[in-house]
Amino acid sequence: MLFDSHTHLQFAGYDDDRDAVIARAKDAGVFMVNVGTDIKSSLFALELAKRYNFEGMYATLGFHPTNIERRHDVQEKKEEYYEEFNKEQFLSLAKDKGFSMIGECGLDYFHIKDETLRNREKKIFLDQIEAAIMYKKPLMIHCRPEKDDDAYLDLYNLLTSDVGRLPEKPGIVHFFVGNNETAKKFLDLGFYLSFGGAITFKKADDHKERVRYVPLDRIVLETDAPYVTPEPHRGKRNEPMYIKHVAEAIARIKGVSFLEVEEQTLNNTKTVLGI
């Protein structure tokens, strides 16, 4: 069995064939976590998990940091849907036992450049940490730096500050792209780091170096579907059954068997989720 720790099958890109995608994943022996990026997508993820009786399918409740800038896109493009963060509503939903994790949440400096908006995303991140602590749920962290590891270092400082604090089970830093020194900071806090399709690309030396550095017992797999499709399917829509290519890449990079990667990452993800 393989465990895709971070996917988004509730997204509109699967509206035409969602059940078929899920069936292919189940046939391939893939468990999955559908990660929420706002209330709407989180509730849909929970609906999917309940539909399949939580047999290999789990859901998170989260508010993605880039949502605070999407508000400006809505004004320009006149999109029908946009959601503001509501702390009271979020805390009320977070107690639902159907949500296995809180997130994805965190900091995104790649997309968010304005200092005022960055301060806003920090506040929303802290509110979600509060929910994770209150209901003893691990975090699914999204962090994307603008330069060097700036967002990671700010996020680390928030987690370790008096106003931040850590949940009982820290969780996962998803799609980790920081350097080895930064990786150690999060490993020392108890986080697991996830790697996805990028490590299968030919020009991915930095990603592969991170995989070499992080111990296998602290690695989880992800697709981030529908994004970052691994080789040999690059250029197509991603889906959870492609997680095997990520596992194969990790086995090659670390010089271990596919079976060892499969068993260890499965156990790692189950440990994070408490299942």
Quickly list its features:
single chain; 16% strand; TIM Barrel; 10 helices; alpha/beta; eight-stranded parallel β-sheet; 275 residues
Brief summary of the model shown:
With 275 residues, the protein is an alpha/beta fold. It is 44% helix and 16% strand. The chain has a single domain, classed as Metal-dependent hydrolases (TIM Barrel), CATH 3.20.20.140.
Question: Which helices and strands appear, and what pairs or packs with what?
Answer:
Layout: E1 2-7, H1 18-27, E2 30-34, H2 39-51, E3 57-61, H3 67-77, H4 87-94, E4 99-108, H5 115-134, E5 139-144, H6 150-160, E6 171-174, H7 180-189, E7 192-195, H8 205-213, E8 219-221, H9 243-254, H10 258-273
Parallel strand pairs: 1-2, 2-3, 3-4, 4-5, 5-6, 6-7, 7-8
Helix pairs in contact: 4-5, 9-10
Question: Explain this structure to me?
Answer:
The chain starts with a strand and ends with a helix. 44% of the residues lie in helices and 16% in strands. It has 275 residues and is α/β, with parallel strands linked by helices. It has an 8-stranded parallel sheet.
